[in-house]
Amino acid sequence: MAFAAPAQPASAGSSPQALVPKPAAAASSAAAEQPRYVVHIDAPQDLQGMLAQYLDIERWRFFPGMSAEQLRGLVDKVPSQAGDLLAAQGYFSSRIAVHLDDTQPLPVVAIAVHTGEPTRVQSVDVQVDGPDGHPDAALAAALRKNWRLAPGQVFRSAAWETAKSNALLELLTKRYPAARIARSEALVDPERRTASLTLRLDTGPGFTFGPIHVEGLQRYPVSIVQRLSPLQPGEPYAQNKLLEWQARLQSSGYFRTALVAAPLAQAQGTSLPVLIRVAEQKTQRLGAGLGYSSNTGARTQLDYENLNIGGRAWRLTSAIKLETLQQSLSAGLAFPRTENGSRYSLGADVQHSNIQGLTTRSQDLSAQRQRVDGAIETQQSLQFINERQDVAGSGSTSTMALVPGFSWTRRDLDNPIDPRSGTLINAQVGGASKAVLSDQNFIRLLLRGVDLIPLGARNQLIVRGVLGSVISPSAEGIPQQELFRAGGIGSVRGYAYQSLGVVQGNAIVGGRALLTVSVEAVHWLTPKWGASVFYDRGGAADSFGALKAVAGYGVGARWRSPAGLISVDLAYGQATQSVRLQFNAGVNF
């Protein structure tokens, strides 16, 4: 005997007609009432919670007006309700026994569940009819390759519905936004405990992107929107291209909101017009903020931004930042994205810092070209650095360098603000020559990475590493920002900020070698709050031979705030035998 399995679990939450007409009111007062009877469910542990949640006999235990007749009616419904619930979990041959003992002051309902062997998928037949109405073997093979409910697996209704939805979604989001399920059938043989699955999909016509229409622009030219586009009219429809364009617009800084869509209802034949609605940001913005970091101390910051200098959508940003250990004044001018996808910018920065006995005063001028292609970001830069160094107990020097540089970054994170999984890798190379406005010949190399590994729903392992090297005859004549120091949040916790480096006089200065690694395990007690344990090791020196890595370890608290991840760590520095409380906002790279 064979029969069609239900597509969804049967509803087990309906109230019996004999009870009150307002079950919601009864449920809301249940916590304040005493139970009218006791329910014992003898079932496999992984099914007990589901049965207790959906069986009416459980839901009505606290109903104050429960009569003996109503209780017997609920008991009689248990085998049918439990059978439907178990069938949705793949148990089509289950046996349910129910016994009511109403001789006790508090009646007892005993439910014994024998599930039997689960029903398993015997065969899967996935077919696709293409735009011409004929079977498309290539599309069907691609869908079968990603099919999750494979032969041998337990047949569950929820898994069946998810597998069908995922197969349809692959078509809807790639070329076929009018795709539909033409036939869906799950034939279950309860005696053999097998399920045969059949799914037939109809792609409908293949669509392409059509003309682009932009609404909401007031100050900026349409080219601001068009040059952020990852698609061209005439290309095959792909939903991810629309989402990528929307994300680019929202992160551009020019728009408060952005919506990109290609509505099927407005198709012209097989051409889908692309509709873009934007709301522009205010042209000028003035911001102020206060903060604190265990690395650089208390912070006061004032920012000014103008998004439309000269009416050309040139973007001016400037900031003054006053921290306990360092202060800076910066300004930048960014130009709109070019037709080939590049962004150019100019910058100027004046900085003063006094950290670990080293006082630096520097003036930087820079020019950059940035390009983002999916997960890959590349950046070419040219920076001129003029720096004065005052080393406690050692004297003062001045250095300058003209540094061309290249940076390559790959971001593969599930969330850029609060990532749960993914990887991030950055590689940098730069250098200077005495022949061109520099006091020393050097090549600077830097490799950084972080890997976030989810371990179940509530645990996460985070592995970080940084490796840096400056190849040069000597560290003399190289600006400090091109050398390396370690210690503090984002480096080796348990030590003061930039306290690991080269000892010179009474100060710690930068060296030509850097190595730090970190392993951290986080357990999320709630969706917002977590606890961590971590181990950091590393240091900086003038050469890798002289580098003596030190360890720092401890425990921390994590909070997923609306603004991003907030971390508070209690870290022990093994080399200094001291404990430090360290605070950080954001994700360390």
Folded structure, characterized:
Helix content is 14%, strand content 48%. The strands form five sheets. A 16-stranded antiparallel beta sheet has the order 11-12-13-14-15-16-17-18-19-20-21-24-25-26-27-28, with no helix packed on it. It has eight helices and 28 strands. The longest helix is centred in the N-terminal third of the chain and has 21 residues. It folds into four domains: 93 residues, membrane protein fhac (Ubiquitin-like (UB roll), Roll); 83 residues, Ubiquitin-like (UB roll) (Roll), CATH 3.10.20; 73 residues, Ubiquitin-like (UB roll); 217 residues, Porin. The two termini are 60 Å apart. With 589 residues, the protein is mainly beta.
Describe the secondary-structure layout.
Layout: E1 3-4, H1 23-28, E2 38-42, H2 45-54, H3 56-59, H4 68-88, E3 95-101, E4 108-114, E5 120-129, H5 137-145, H6 157-172, E6 180-189, E7 194-202, E8 208-215, H7 223-226, H8 239-251, E9 255-261, E10 271-280, E11 284-293, E12 297-309, E13 314-323, E14 326-334, E15 342-355, E16 358-373, E17 376-391, E18 395-413, E19 422-432, E20 442-454, E21 459-471, E22 502-504, E23 507-509, E24 513-524, E25 529-541, E26 550-561, E27 564-573, E28 578-585
Parallel strand pairs: 2-4, 5-7, 8-10
Antiparallel strand pairs: 1-6, 3-4, 6-7, 9-10, 11-12, 12-13, 13-14, 14-15, 15-16, 16-17, 17-18, 18-19, 19-20, 20-21, 21-24, 22-23, 24-25, 25-26, 26-27, 27-28
Summarize the structure.
The chain has 589 residues and is mainly beta.
Search tags:
589 residues, Ubiquitin-like (UB roll), disordered N terminus, 14% helix, globular, four-stranded mixed sheet, 28 strands, 4 domains, 16-stranded antiparallel sheet, mainly beta
